[in-house]
Write a structure and sequence with these properties.
Layout lengths: L1 H6 L4 H22 L2 H4 L4 H15 L8 H30 L9
């Protein structure tokens, strides 16, 4: 009963907390999607170090790369992965006849 009440709590702080929790879960999903969990054998210190290096490069650290160029390049790479996943999902739905407006809709 308490869990149901927590899900329907509309107080500002509760709504903000759920939003923050969802945001953090989504960010964790990106870490997993990038393969960092497997590549680092789930070593959180290594993952944090890698992310700190990325943040340093975006701040214009010792690297010669332009932070705006890095951001644009990384964004394009990420968008390609999202697009490929979306296409694979649609293809999988088509195989199972679950695409809205498809043969079984």
């Amino acid at each position: 009963m308490e869990a149901a009440r927590a899900r329907t709590d509309t107080r500002d702080w509760a709504v903000a907390r759920r939003g923050r929790t969802r945001h953090l879960i989504e960010l964790g999903g990106l870490v997993a999607k990038a393969g960092l969990v497997e590549l680092t054998d789930d070593d959180r210190a290594t993952m944090l170090g890698a992310l700190m290096e990325v943040a340093g490069r975006l701040r214009g650290g010792d690297d010669d790369a332009d932070p705006a160029h890095l951001r644009a390049r990384w964004r394009r790479a990420g968008l390609r992965v999202f697009d490929a996943d979306r296409e694979a999902g649609v293809a999988g739905q088509e195989e199972h006849g679950t695409v809205p407006g498809g043969p079984t809709a």
